[in-house]
């Protein structure tokens, strides 16, 4: 049996069970493969049906990362194999994005509490797993980001939905710069809910076993409340009881909220691009690094991320996933995504040759191709069943 994801059930004092899923590829910072997606999805479905399972914990092995992203090597190989054949020809990409987005949507709509331990690196596909959890927990080592612009992609896995719900213009800034957030800023931006010190995680997990979990409808102590309401409350109380005593200082995103809102205030991406780029020599290294990341990133990704945020601003989560699926398949076929992976992970020269090479070339007419559904006419959207009744 594969051990890329480890599953266990811990028994609480009252007999209720806690499902624990551990991403177990620390050598790749728990990067999310299609095999891991399928294993997680199947186990989450099983735990959802089991009345004895009160809640689920998602965590990563190794101590350095919860999950640093998706299977870029597998996607790169598939792009080489299907180069020039169009978005719909790449069956691996169709499967990967389709099944990953389904898993992420399942987490968003899960019938039981899911605690995601977002300690260490949480990026890309890791954000997709964490974002939908009911109780998202960060630590002093957390480093949360959606840096897809550096590899010719865009903040997917529902990122357009999340970014549009951040305070002010923070979501647009993060989409264009891939800036890292610490625990404080992750909570400020709505990417996390609670914090624990990394060293307190084992004691917290032990404390969970002593909670009076409601595992059966109408079971002992449940009164007139549904088990979900009881267990959400118990988990929240346990997290607050273990919260660090030291106050949480504002992170750079919050410190610079006025400036971020100002530079991202325009409704034209070219104007926003220039405003952020002007920060490349800023005295604050966080702002300077964010600007330099934008300037080094794919201009097409900047245009696409901006356009997606505009188009999906009022859409449901399910519709956002459907829109991102079309855009992701187009990215697989267009070339910049392949080039970004090559420069970062394959040849490792960190000198990507972007095409289009400028934001002016990546104009509004160019970006429309990322919204054209690539499957045969009359075929339903592969994610058509997301929404009410999804199971």
UniProtKB/TrEMBL annotation:
Q: Which GO terms describe its biological process?
A: L-valine catabolic process
Q: Where are the transmembrane segments?
A: none
Q: Which residues form the Enoyl-CoA hydratase/isomerase domain?
A: 19-371
Q: What is its EC number?
A: 3.1.2.4
Write down what this protein is called.
3-hydroxyisobutyryl-CoA hydrolase
Which organism encodes this protein?
A: Bordetella genomosp. 12
Q: Which InterPro entries match?
A: ClpP/crotonase-like_dom_sf, ECH_dom, HIBYL-CoA-H
**Presence of keyword DNA damage:** no
Q: Which domain of life is it from?
A: Bacteria
Q: Does the keyword Transcription regulation apply?
A: no
